[in-house]
Write a structure and sequence with these properties.
The complex is a heterotrimer. Chain B has 14 helices and no strands. Chain B is an all-alpha fold. The longest helix of chain B has 54 residues. Classes of the chains: A alpha/beta, B mainly alpha, C mainly alpha.
């Protein structure tokens, strides 16, 4: 166990929460469990490799023995995973391995397909999501899709969409503005659209549209953000912008990202789950899975033997 | 390797082909020009025949004043009994009747059609959907004269016998008779007639909404009903406009059914009368032409009727323009832009 | 294409949303009921007065409903006028659709042609009828109808058929044009590559390919023309039997006046001159059956056409 001998980033943590200590030098991590309330200072910035950076995580969702079938065909076989705030969970695997299905089951979008059937459970903050109203669930667990899909409205209206839906009475545009701007700022888009918020959203470039979708998803103040290959339709420049954004966001929301781009997973994921043919083959911290995979299949996939 | 003979053969073939193609293009071009000429001829002839009536009446043509039926009668008789043609005609009661029936039917049909289209496309269980689609098609293909027949034999007696009280009858006796031929019958049947047009166009527009927009909204925690209204209906606005314009044009031009159920008096129902308004008879512009079509032999009558036709023609042209104009501002939001970053 | 069917029950919605859904159900069912009522009512009333002899007796002058005969003349009149109308509308419609889809030069002209077709589609049929009145009074068109003492009568099958064709024309154009536009360009290029001229390509390759669209478009147009009463009442002369003109067999009938099912119903309704509701019902049933059969044929054809998709 590593010794923490410098002031740590502050976060109000509950007893029982798990701290993952990350070491910048070799990327090793260790788990520390809090026994009593701890208060940590968020202003601490580490620049020397001798410092230890603590990134606290909080478990938000848990997948327990989840199996999903489309009709007779199994798509996901008995997968169990934790999803934590404070880290990015990457789901990787070849096409058809069930990673997208798994992602979509986290906000019950799999129910849109008639033939889908589910065994096992998924919990959000301890509550089985099957017992929640789908609409309530999807406000807390929001999703960004592969193809940017902003609505045919102005930029402002896109972000304000969820806010307007949540409000009991029709809120005035002025009162929504601060929340919209905050969501856009979190998505890293505010500076670019600050003067053009009434312009049609479809006029933005692909990368901007995707960031708008992220802003829209964040406007709901979700606890978990699901990303389904968000950069696969974008150019490398926009991809970099969004990857930086995701890493910044992980402090505030639990992030789950499905990607077929192994380098991307390596860059941004803290924990990686490798799936193959519906099974969870290996789940490990990113550096461990890529640097020293335990399973044979993982080793083969990561080295590009199949894709 | 191309030789001189090949070149010559090619040139010959091209020449022959070109002239064949040229001829074809010219003949087809002549055909389409012929159709354009036909439309122009229609507008010109009708306006020309209508001109005397407008010239004599000026803007009062559209105003009110006097009993429209009496005016029509004197117009018709004018050339046989007097030798000076009479053109005095104030068409306001007819115009008002047309406005009331058309507006009433379009508004009612729009509401019903929008809900039915949404229902059909998204919320109806599959068996219900499979029944609704043929129902809409059957309703769309029933000829208007059959609608008129059923109207006059079922709806009109129903209104006359069950919805009109004696006191109501008494209150308007000096002016008109309440017998079931009414605005209500006209609006109800016209609604059923134009709704199928709206429903099919609305439904097509709603079905064309990209699925991922709807999914995106659902994934943000908005329920199905509100998702569909907020996203799909918003996106399908051009289809809503197109359907409404088409249905309004149909309603404006309807003469047969209206002449059978809305009454044959040129009376302008007065909103100040209250609810009796709905059971008062009236006659619209198109129905008036049909009503007096036997009297086309009298020149002043002919000019008057053509004047009415000119108003109808002009209205339908204006409608098409309005529909086109209303769609323009919306194009902004639907054009997916290029990279403007 | 799957619908967004989620397992969320509507009980989680706001009450305004639930009210909306309830209203949608209500109106949907209401329309089904109205449709059923119309069909059943016509069926019941029509069958009561529909004897087989009704179909092949001519209308006669008489005092009671038993004496006034049947609808042979109107039936023939309907067939004749529709045949005439579609005989004009189909070739002209195909020609315009081909020009719009394959030529369309100059661009301004194409836009004008499109607007023209749209305007004909939107023109009320009563306006078309009155146009027909003026048009066919012209003496150079006198050969199409009866001409007595220098005055052209101007009413008959030719004028009625011609104006009905204007009614059906936009529908044919739309259907054929969509069919032509659905054919991918490589088909045309393949034909040009083997040296065929444009017009030969159109005639030998494209038109046969859109034959289903031509047929469906014509049938839809015919359906609309079948249902029209105004043009018939004003332009067909409204004689209760087919009155031919001159001695040439078919041409004489076409130049003459007559009746169709729609004007028959119109005249026999309580608001019409003859006021024989029973006959009107019977004729209405016959007309509705014809229209519905036409619809079914269009459906079947449409489905077959969709099966021959261009990959």
């Amino acid at each position: 166990m590593d010794v923490i001998n410098q002031p740590l980033p502050v976060r109000q943590l509950e007893p029982g929460a798990t701290l993952t200590v990350r070491r910048p030098l070799d990327g090793g991590t260790a788990q520390i469990r809090l026994l009593e309330e701890a208060i940590l200072d968020t202003s601490f910035v580490s620049s020397s490799t001798e410092r230890h950076v603590v990134v606290p995580t909080l478990e938000r969702m848990r997948v327990e023995e989840l199996s999903i079938n489309y009709g007779q065909k199994p798509a996901v076989r008995s997968v169990s995973l934790p999803i934590r705030q404070g880290e990015v969970l990457g789901l990787i695997g070849p096409s058809g391995c069930g990673k997208t299905t798994l992602l979509r089951s986290l906000n019950r979008l799999t129910e849109l397909t008639k033939s889908a059937s589910l065994i096992g459970r998924v919990t959000l903050d301890g509550v089985d999501i099957a017992e929640l109203e789908p609409t309530a669930l999807r406000r807390r667990v929001t999703m960004v899709f592969q193809q940017p899909n902003p609505f045919p409205m102005s930029v402002f209206d896109n972000v304000a969409y969820v806010l307007r839906e949540q409000a009991k009475r029709k809120p005035r545009k002025m009162s929504l503005r601060p929340q919209v701007e905050e969501a856009l700022a979190r998505a890293g888009l505010l500076e670019e659209v600050r003067d053009n918020m009434d312009h049609p959203a479809l006029r933005l470039s692909g990368g901007q549209q995707q960031r708008l979708c992220i802003a829209r998803a964040l406007a709901a103040n979700p606890e978990v953000l699901l990303l389904d290959e968000p950069c696969s339709a974008l150019d490398p420049q926009s991809t970099k912008v969004i990857e930086d954004l995701i890493v910044k966001l992980r402090e505030e929301v639990a992030v789950v990202i499905v990607t077929h781009n192994l380098q991307q997973a390596h860059r941004i994921a803290d924990h990686v789950a490798f799936m193959y043919l519906g099974e969870l083959v290996e789940y490990a911290p990113g550096h461990a899975l890529f640097g020293n995979p335990k399973e044979q299949r993982t080793r083969e996939y990561v080295s590009g033997a199949f894709g | 390797m191309r030789t001189a003979i090949d070149d010559e053969l090619l040139r010959l073939a091209e020449d022959e082909g070109l002239s064949q193609d040229q001829r074809a293009e010219l003949s087809l071009g002549a055909l389409v020009c012929g159709v354009i000429v036909l439309l122009l001829a229609m507008v010109v002839f009708i306006v020309a025949q209508a001109w005397p009536s407008f010239a004599h009446n000026g803007l009062h043509w559209f105003g009110s004043g006097g009993n429209v039926d009496q005016q029509l009668e004197s117009i018709f008789n004018s050339t046989s009994y007097l030798h000076k043609a009479v053109y005095t005609f104030h068409a306001w009661p007819l115009i008002w009747s047309t406005i009331l029936t058309t507006a009433g039917a379009v508004i009612l049909a729009f509401i019903c059609s929008l809900f039915i289209a949404i229902f059909m496309v998204e919320f109806a269980p599959v068996p219900v959907q499979r029944i609704l689609e043929p129902v809409v098609r059957v309703l769309a293909s029933v000829p208007s004269v059959i609608y008129g027949l059923i109207g006059v034999l079922v709806l009109v007696p129903f209104i006359g016998n069950h919805l009109i009280t004696q006191s109501e009858r008494a209150s308007v006796t000096p002016v008109i008779q309440l017998s079931g031929y009414s605005l209500l019958a006209a609006v109800v049947i016209l609604t059923v007639m134009i709704a199928p047009i709206m429903i099919s166009i609305f439904a097509d527009g709603l079905r064309a909404v990209p699925r991922n927009w709807l999914e995106g909204s659902l994934a943000l925690g908005v329920n199905r009903w509100r998702t569909f209204w907020k996203v799909a209906v918003l996106t399908a606005r051009p289809a809503l406009i197109a359907g409404t314009v088409l249905a309004t044009a149909r309603a404006l031009g309807e003469s047969v059914m209206l002449s059978m159920v809305s009454g044959s008096v040129g009376f302008a129902p007065n909103p100040a009368d209250g609810l009796i308004l709905f059971v008062e008879p009236s006659r619209g512009l198109a129905a008036t032409i049909l009503h007096n079509t036997d009297e086309l032999s009298s020149p002043p009558m002919e000019h008057t009727l053509f004047a009415i036709a000119a108003v109808l023609l002009f209205s339908s042209l204006m409608l098409s323009l309005a529909g086109w104009g209303a769609k323009q501002p919306m194009k902004r939001y639907f054009q997916v832009g290029g990279a403007e970053a | 294409m799957s619908r967004t069917r989620a397992l969320e029950s509507s009980s989680s919605w706001r009450w305004t949303d639930r009210l909306g859904l309830a209203f949608a159900w209500l109106v949907g069912l209401l329309f089904c009921v109205i449709c059923a009522a119309i069909v059943i009512y016509l069926l019941v009333q029509g069958i009561r007065y529909l004897h087989p002899s009704f179909l092949w007796t001519n209308p006669k002058v008489g005092n009671t409903q038993n004496e006034t005969g049947g609808i042979l003349a109107p039936l023939l009149g309907t067939a004749l006028v529709i045949a005439l109308a579609m005989g004009i509308a189909t070739p002209v419609g195909v020609g315009i659709a081909v020009w719009l889809s394959e030529y369309a030069r100059p661009r301004q002209l194409a836009r004008v042609v499109e607007s023209t077709v749209e305007m004909f589609a939107g023109a009320p049929s009563i306006v078309l009828a009155l146009f027909g009145v003026i048009l066919f009074r012209a003496s150079f068109l006198g050969f199409l109808t009866e001409k007595t003492g220098g005055v052209v009568y101007g009413k008959g099958f030719f004028p009625a058929g011609a104006m009905l064709s204007l009614l059906a024309l936009p529908l044919v154009v739309t259907s054929v044009r969509e069919g032509l536009q659905a054919i991918p360009n490589h088909v045309r290029e393949a034909s040009y590559a083997v040296g065929k001229t444009k017009i030969a390509t159109i005639r030998r390759v494209l038109l046969p390919a859109v034959r289903p669209d031509i047929i469906t478009g014509s049938m839809i147009g015919a359906g609309h023309a079948l249902g029209d009463t105004v043009i018939i009442v004003i332009l067909l002369g409204d004689t209760y039997i087919l009155q031919g003109v001159g001695h040439v067999p078919l041409l004489g009938t076409l130049r003459g006046t007559g009746d169709t099912l729609t004007s028959y119903i119109f005249d026999n309704a309580p608001t019409g001159d003859l006021n024989q509701p029973n006959k009107a019902f019977a004729a209405a049933l016959v007309l509705l059956v014809i229209v519905l059969i036409l619809n079914v044929i269009v459906d079947i054809f449409g489905r077959k056409a969709r099966e021959l998709k261009w990959t």
